Amino acid sequence: MPLLNYTTKVNVYTTIGEIQAQLVSHGAKRIMQDYDNKGHISALTFQIDTPAGLRVIRLPANVDAVSKVLAKQKVKCDREQAERVAWRIVKDWVEAQMAILESEMVQIDEIFLPYMVNNSGQTLFQAYRNNQILLEGGCQ
Question: Residue 134 — very low, low, confident or very high, per pLDDT cuts 50/70/90?
Answer without folding.
Answer: low
